[in-house]
Automatic annotation (TrEMBL):
Organism annotation: Sphingobium tyrosinilyticum
Residues that, per the record, bind S-adenosyl-L-methionine: N30, L32, G57, E78, D104, N123
Primary localization: cytoplasm
The keyword rRNA processing is assigned to this record: yes
Family designation: Belongs to the class I-like SAM-binding methyltransferase superfamily. rRNA adenine N(6)-methyltransferase family. RsmA subfamily.
Record's catalysed reaction(s): adenosine(1518)/adenosine(1519) in 16S rRNA + 4 S-adenosyl-L-methionine = N(6)-dimethyladenosine(1518)/N(6)-dimethyladenosine(1519) in 16S rRNA + 4 S-adenosyl-L-homocysteine + 4 H(+)
Name by which UniProt lists this protein: Ribosomal RNA small subunit methyltransferase A
Its EC number(s): 2.1.1.182
Single GO term (MF): 16S rRNA (adenine(1518)-N(6)/adenine(1519)-N(6))-dimethyltransferase activity
Length: 279
């Protein structure tokens, strides 16, 4: 859809007022109303024209309209029934581009609904954001996963944990699970004042793109390994990993000093340990 064909939409504040859509704290909602900012977020994955896209928690449809303006074929999942009439208006404004599912994103099969090679773009509800991310990262890879990219808004602290490098306070299990077979970066920082109501913390948009999974490495081994290592992150690996079968032997095989701590072990080293444990 070219810019000349864009429908004229009412300001988001008017939509929120017309439908009585106060953000729900219980649902982890914080609405973004700055349309220029929303267009910038929708541009992060690259061209969305005629591309499948998937959004979680569209709320009154701020980011939704930006994704639709970019030309995507969008499936949006919303559990707050109050928002459905506002989203229905967007469906009418962008004929054939938007399908809204009323339900809980934790229960929806995103792959089945959005289709292959979809771009997942969302201002994620704070209370389920990390769980949804781990679910997408744990999807079947063959050797690439079904989604083309993830463009996700998180609290700044979570974003920093996703992109963290070794030897930093933010480096942990989430960094390893995010980076062992994908590239993750902070694409944009978003000030708390951009939201209605303003959250207590800063936010950031993380952009994740898949890359082929390392050969002969199973996610289950990496998950157990990182859970044990970072579950007692201040302890030496010889202590934190002693309860995981084969882990201490893997340290020796890979050549990792058992006196090191988890936060010093690189993503590549964790991958190699998981490969050895899985033999």
């Amino acid at each position: 859809m070219g810019t000349e064909a864009r429908p004229i939409l009412p300001p988001l504040r008017e939509v929120i007022a017309a439908h009585g859509l106060q953000a729900s704290k219980a649902l982890g909602q914080n609405f973004l109303l700055d349309e220029q900012l929303l267009d910038r977020i929708a541009a992060i994955p690259g061209s969305l024209k005629d591309q499948p896209a998937f959004e979680v928690g569209p709320g009154p449809g701020g980011l939704t309209r930006a994704i639709l303006r970019a030309g995507a074929r969008l499936v949006a999942v919303e559990r707050d029934n109050r928002c459905l009439p506002a989203l229905a208006e967007l469906s009418d404004a962008f004929p054939g581009q938007l399908r809204v599912i009323s339900g809980d994103a934790m229960q929806v099969d995103a792959r089945a609904e959005a289709g292959e090679k979809a771009h997942i773009i969302a201002n994620l509800p704070y209370n389920v954001g990390t769980a949804l991310l781990i679910g997408w990262l744990s999807a079947d890879w063959e050797p690439l996963t079904w989604w083309s990219s993830l463009t996700l808004m998180f609290q700044m602290e979570v974003a920093e944990r996703i992109v963290a490098k070794p030897n930093g306070d933010h480096y942990g299990r989430l960094a390893v699970l995010s980076q062992w077979r994908s590239d993750a970066r902070i694409a944009m920082k978003v000030h708390r004042s951009a939201f209605t109501p303003p959250p207590k913390v800063m936010s950031a948009v993380v952009h994740i793109t898949p890359k082929p999974a390392p050969e002969a490495v199973q996610l289950k081994h990496l998950e157990r390994l990182t859970a044990a290592a970072f579950g007692q992150r201040r302890k030496m690996l010889r202590q934190s990993l002693k309860g995981l079968p084969g882990a201490l032997e893997a340290l020796e095989t890979v050549g990792i000093d058992p006196q090191r701590r988890a936060e010093t072990v690189s993503v590549e080293e964790f991958v190699e340990l998981a490969r050895v444990i899985g033999r």
